Amino acid sequence: MSEFKYVGKDIPRVDAWDKVTGRGMFTQDVSLPGMLYTRVLRSPYAHAKVVSIDLSEAEKLPGVAAVAYFGNTTRKLFNPSNGQVLTMEPHEPAMDMRLFTDEPKYIGDEIAAVAAVDEKTAQRAVSLIKITYRELPFVLDPLEALKEDAPAVQPVQVLKNVLGQPAEFKMGDTDAGFAEADLVVEDQVRISRLKHAQLETQCAVADYRDDGRLKVVSTTQSPHNALVILSHLFEIPESRIEVCAGAPYVGGGFGTRTGFSGKAEAIAAALSMLARRPVKYSYTREEDMTCSDSRHGGYITGRLGVKKDGTFCCVEVTAYLNIGAYATYSMDVLSVLGAYGICSTYHIPNLHYMGYGCYTNQQNAGAFRGFGTPQGTFMMETLVDHAAKELGMDGVILRKMNSTKVGDTWILPYPVGSTGLNECIDKAAAAIGWKAKRGGTKTGHLRRGIGLAAGTHGSNAWPFCVDYSSTYARIENDGSLFISVASPEIGPGSTTSMTQIAAESMHIPIDMVRVRFGETASAPFDSGTHATRTLYTVGNVIHRACLSLVDQVLEYAQEQLGIAKDRLKLEDGMIRADGGEEKADGCNSPDGVSISLAALAHKAHLNNRRFLATVSDFIPNTPPWECHGAEVEVDMQTGMVRVVRMVCAHDVGRAINPLLVKGQIEGGVVMGIGGALREEMSYVEGKGFYNDGFHKYMLPAIGDIPEIVSIIVESCDPTGPYNLKGVGECSSIPTAAAIASAVEDATGVRFHELPMTPGRVLQGLKEAGKI
Amino acid sequence: MSEFKYVGKDIPRVDAWDKVTGRGMFTQDVSLPGMLYTRVLRSPYAHAKVVSIDLSEAEKLPGVAAVAYFGNTTRKLFNPSNGQVLTMEPHEPAMDMRLFTDEPKYIGDEIAAVAAVDEKTAQRAVSLIKITYRELPFVLDPLEALKEDAPAVQPVQVLKNVLGQPAEFKMGDTDAGFAEADLVVEDQVRISRLKHAQLETQCAVADYRDDGRLKVVSTTQSPHNALVILSHLFEIPESRIEVCAGAPYVGGGFGTRTGFSGKAEAIAAALSMLARRPVKYSYTREEDMTCSDSRHGGYITGRLGVKKDGTFCCVEVTAYLNIGAYATYSMDVLSVLGAYGICSTYHIPNLHYMGYGCYTNQQNAGAFRGFGTPQGTFMMETLVDHAAKELGMDGVILRKMNSTKVGDTWILPYPVGSTGLNECIDKAAAAIGWKAKRGGTKTGHLRRGIGLAAGTHGSNAWPFCVDYSSTYARIENDGSLFISVASPEIGPGSTTSMTQIAAESMHIPIDMVRVRFGETASAPFDSGTHATRTLYTVGNVIHRACLSLVDQVLEYAQEQLGIAKDRLKLEDGMIRADGGEEKADGCNSPDGVSISLAALAHKAHLNNRRFLATVSDFIPNTPPWECHGAEVEVDMQTGMVRVVRMVCAHDVGRAINPLLVKGQIEGGVVMGIGGALREEMSYVEGKGFYNDGFHKYMLPAIGDIPEIVSIIVESCDPTGPYNLKGVGECSSIPTAAAIASAVEDATGVRFHELPMTPGRVLQGLKEAGKI
Predict the structure, then answer these.
(1) What's the pLDDT tens digit per position in A599-655?
(2) I need a labelling partner for B74 at 20 to 30 A (CA). Which of A117, A282, B290, B731 fits?
(3) Which residue of B has its CA nearest to A474?
(4) Is B72 within 8 Å of chain A by CB?
(5) Across the interface, do A17 and B209 touch by the CB < 8 Å criterion?
């Protein structure tokens, strides 16, 4: 990495000061003069019809400024996710939600909202809304929902309670593939609904003006997409809306606010329009947990056909995911589950994947770190381990021989461009002590075992949806660089890495670079911080904008210095010709001269000239690869699984900031451990989800977190800026499968249901006769 | 004007709703969490040295967060005006001010400032600062300041107490010119210091972050220039500073905040750096009146040589202006006074102008609507009326025969491109009833008279300083247009006219256009709202950006429709080929098709493409012209002059929004009347300016405002966008001269000193033996 000055370096985060001093502002901190506060009336029924509603008492309560409900605000169907904005032709975005409904479809569905001088008054007003319901039949399980006599959650689709056309990938001939196979293994896995549990709850402040301008600050991960959806909902031209993602910080995301942040933006906006004042709507933790989207749970079944020598010849997988009452994101999640979870890690000539998004009368599921790939990977790696066991083959060898190689044709519409997967597998295996430890300890009540699982994902969301970024960049009067991008800083530190790319590409000291982020006024369209895309896709346009600015600068230097552009070079903020030395008034010297960018930029200013660039660009997706190794200790008496150590090898193309890459890996692994062993949204019929706060949702605490060894593999992919690929989501993808493999290694029992809670483990051990 | 859809129409102001509902936010309304408030310690002496200062008691006061003074903040010399940023080579900007001083040079000069939890605590802390001074000699009058034994206000310049090289314009040969003349008239005028009296006092909120970012919201007219000066003062890269002019509105300007708004930005920023919290500094009205800049008063002497037939053959003028203790702007004001006030309205082959900016120990003078031209015009029109009287010629005929004509070479480095001046003179003369009424009534104690005066000015500040604008524009996903410009909306309504230009140039409905204004994050460099430049210079870049966007749109339409670009036309938001009709799916039809811009923009989005434009452009200055006619009634017993009627003919090139042009004319005329008859800053030795509030500064009240007839003349200049020229400052330029001429017509006495207060008039009438 020595050829670079900033790329590849552990530069401290640009938001570090703001975060450690507590001065960084989040949406929750925003307060505007005259601002009102919101509480929402939510359905107590999983499915019902509002028979009557009387707002008069609520409206009369002193301190109440507006009551919005389905009768006085927009009735347009919409989709609160990126899906409404980014779904590509020929597909149509799923539009099945209304802002407020008179037919609630899950416990918590929004019926009305109150804006008042404080939350207490708003809550009191909500309690004064007189409402009567007629209860309607409901369905909660995705497989139940497919049955003929199940109540329809949404108007009938192509298949009852199935969103749109099921997702499908097909390659080769599965009949022929299975016929070729010497061994066919078959498994079913069951995956629970998970919650993002980001620290900052969904929140928005909206300020609508009578001339039709709307400004929203919110916890969205995709300010432009939120803007487009607001424009659609309220029929306001996009140019009159501004959305800021945070102020400027967003307290985590993990997918829960790609597009709208819950319905916070739209509810606050609807109330601001009625009240003619700024309105804040901050979800309570309870609302956030039970009334904004979560990760899809469901059932996946798979069959893998393998030759004696270990060659995978065929795979067939079907997924049924519980999408809840509205199709926030489900087509794309089902697609990605198949694409990256099933069809990509290994090169399997014959494959068939079907994915069904099943409507139920539960809170909707949506984007969640990994976007389907963790679920698919858990299925696929279960099959691979199963085949290895049946064949008596080493899992490392089996994986490496079947892994997708450079040049392979696969699910993306071009061959694989680079892969460090086998290097990841080798390094993870070595680091976890594969040769020495695999086989586990079989004595005592604390059993140790190790396991390993591989995976891939995308570096952006293409070709599953529209995916491009834009930037707007300027050289200021003093030679400093201003860059604006709309993708928010939701925690990973991407804006720090962007700053590094900008300094490297512009050839100026890094403290002369400012990357502004997360708002739609200065930044042109960007699809937001999601899909592992941010640094890859935004980094690309930043790089391109800098190349344009360097070109403009050298063009002007050529004019001013009278030296041909191709003899000039910008280095560390200085423009030099053929290695010349700096001179105070170098402008008119014929040769061997230099001039600082600051002096040149100021000269340009004095001549009424600026260096400006806008870039909007699409970059084809080049997937990253990963392999996790896990060492676990299983308590045979309690069923408690303790992760002792995780080793996580990731092909990130190139690590722009290795420290931040490791931060992403560690954070993702912790989420992966949570989903593998602890976290689960539990539904109680008639009451809804039990987990209405962090105290009822078993996030990994510090004592649950093992040593995590992050291994960076750099395949230096030719596609991405500075050869980088994504990493954000990848780090939680193979974690659960690696842990399940380690648990099997320790206990001899393979678990097919997540999370592997002590109860489930104990029961599994009993059923297998191990205790 | 029928060829245009929006240009030339009285479109209601885009900020109307915000202003009439009271929801428009100004800097004074800004409140940030944890924000501190400021009070300032100011010098009680016109010139002194701080011998000792002890902050300890102030710092100890509970609620005080920081005390800034000359010992703990920046000591850099700077210039708070646009001058620091826009002064062109080979001149250097005058840098003679420090943020806090230990040698105060006027009563009110800043020595220290306190940030505290509220203003009361801050004021109490200011009173606890123990300070001792040594008084130093001072000088108050500009002519006194030039004397050999006068104390030096600033380190000695080329001439004692004279800023830089005196301004000078020379054409032809004045000796020969005067030799040619049949008549030489000579006059001296004296002009008082005036105050802008904008409604919102100087105010700024600064938020400095530990990572070196600084955000400032302030009442500046020039956010980028304020940014550059902050960068200089605090050595922060420009890309890390953001300045918003208002939030987004600025409560008036009239020149008083071109660059910094007083020192509000820098004082708030210095305190925020020390306190590590956001800080607001809002000038009291007293501070605003007596400690931020004002219009230059001073002395001007002139000689005009005329041939018998009325041909002007020579003019010689010398101005001595009181610039106060610091050179906020004075070189440029002195230049403009000569250029437009003396050398431009009439074509005079031999001329010599000298302008001296004289330092005194008073509050500094700076930019003020007209920027020197009103002072110069008062001198020039006094000479012209004098000559007319001596020659016995009609003032209208004399003016028209000598007025500058198209093609004349003059003060600008290219010939006159267009002038409607003679049309203005004719129309003003007709409207004021020149033929019928000139000569006045000579009986009774209420004497009526009419007068007339002509003038010109610039449409921007070039070539007196750097002058260009930039814009950043986008077509959004729904075909709406977003445009960002940094020039603030300080009241005139320019942003409405910009919106009209954008809609006209983009060929879309006006409600699809949004012009964002007044901040430096989304907008590239613009030198701000001043110098009559805004609509002319910013309108030009908006027009150019729209042309670029239309081109990009048609290029993409060509790709999509398969029809050559030159056969496509964008009209009213539709792209049509050869008059074809709209079709829902017209994209692939071969001919006669149309597609809406909205559909095309959305299609582009789905194909990862955006239409973006940045434009930075200089446009040569093309001056507007004007002639005012005044009818007055003079009370010979009290000396009170009442303006009965003003008729104001302005060549504005083309009126983009005639209603707003008339608003500008009316507002300017009222200011002109104030300066002619009422307004005056009066200095009391040892105390400073008497006029520390509106109650002590005689602004025209509603009873003082006559009928104002605005006459728009359209010369359709080829240079400006849609042929427009400026108007903002022009409307107060010839007002005082027209009124003086009318007073002379009524009374037979010519007054040479402004304002013509009852006392001065009475004394003048007595001296002339008229009463």
Answers:
(1) 999 999 999 999 999 999 999 999 999 999 999 999 999 999 999 999 999 999 999
(2) B290
(3) B524
(4) no
(5) yes
